[in-house]
Amino acid sequence: MLLIRNIRELIQVEKVPRPRVCGQDMASLETVNDAYLVIDRGIITDFGQMKDLDSSPVGRDSTAIQVMDASGRMVMPCWCDSHTHLVFPVSRESEFIDKIRGLSYEEIAKRGGGILNSARRLAEISEEVLLQDALGRIGEIIRYGTGAVEIKSGYGLTFEGEIKMLKVIRRLKEMTPVTIKATFLGAHAIPLEYRSRREKYVDLVVHEMLPYVAGEKLADFADVFCDRGFFTPEETERILSAAVSLGLKPKIHANELDYSGGIQVGVSFGALSVDHLEYTGEEEIEALKGSGTMPTILPGAAFFLGLKPAPARKMIDAGLPLAMASDFNPGSSPSGNMQLILSLGSIIYKLLPEEGINAITINTAYAMDLADSLGSIAVGKKANVLITRPIPSYHYLPYAFGENKVETVILNGEVVSGY
Fold it and tell me: Do residues 366 and 395 lie in contact, with contact meaning Cβ atoms separated by under 8 Å?
């Protein structure tokens, strides 16, 4: 049993856990000042004010208790990062230079760069090398406070390559303390050899990749990049129909480059989330209202690519929930630092710190189908929590964008070290 005491402020507490936070409620954040938190066998079992500790069960029986003092520090749930591609073969800094020289994301992709570049390199790299590189990235995101992460395939674009990636993700689940969800993204791009026969590649995804992935339980979700220059709404519908029939929950890359119809397709299939959303208008917002689909923006990608920001404020003002994720990948968002994402949420999208914290904890947990176990400080939830360095307030988290504010990470009730 672990007792964290003298917490300056315990953040994102819930007596009655919510699955997600919507609209104006996103500007509210429940906290406890001068608090304590009790963790037992990996689960949060109690919290409250220090003045009430002596009358609590743990205060009356303090035997066999490990005690941590958090004086001057904040304690809060670890970040949940619901959209990453952190298993990848190599970095793509040469394309970064192309972007500086004026080439667009689409222009780079059309000439065989971008996703197709990563796919070529992935074919040359062993599963073991992919695993070791990804372990390094997992350690990096833990140090910045991430306790749960969704990892997509999508740099294989062949049966062998996609399965290789998903096997690496499965090994990461087994080897690391982070909670990991795996997503099959065979429909990430059309390979060059299929450009004149797109239907054949969709056939490969539907008839060969998806049945194997589902049969071997290699993925929790299935995703499609439904956008201009990638997969059409009709192709997306076909792929998601097959995925749903095989028991895989859908997600969507949508409306990053144009009004693609991807948001509407995602909602129609009950997608857990639709992600990117730079091109989101009234029709898309209306489609999302009343649905169970989580709108998810990816500030790191929009910032890195110089895209117009998604209309985050408009979505919240319309009563929608909002999540933010890192999109950690080598081409358009080469960082998994969720503290930076929180800062970009305030700086670029004008989100209040409270809205940003809700967007990277409760709402991203929902976008990973983990709302019942992660995303807030609540009795019965998994003890994935972080302890900050001494900071003046939680408003400091998005304000000080150039430093790591996390001092200690606790995953599954255990202090994480060696990462």
Answer: no
Instruction: Note the pLDDT tens digit of each residue in 169-183.
Output: 999 999 999 999 999
φ/ψ of 35, rounded to 5, equals -115, 170
The angle subtended at Cα 324 by Cα 323 and Cα 330, nearest 5°, is 145
Q: Do both 313 and 357 map to the same domain? A: yes
Number of domains in the chain: 2
Residue count of the chain, please give it. 419
Q: Which two tokens stand for residue 198?
A: 């797109």
Average pLDDT over all residues of the chain: 95
Beta strands in 277-350 (DSSP E): 294-297, 323-324
Domain that holds residue 261: 79-367
pLDDT value at residue 391: 97
Q: What is the CATH number of the domain that holds 59?
A: 2.30.40.10
Same domain? For 156 and 35 the reply is: no
* Exposed e or buried b per residue across 289-312, where buried means at least 16 C-beta atoms within 10 angstroms of its C-beta: eebebbbbbbbbbbbbbebebbbb
Number of H helices, E strands in the chain: 17, 16
CA distance linking residue 300 with residue 306, whole number of Å: 10
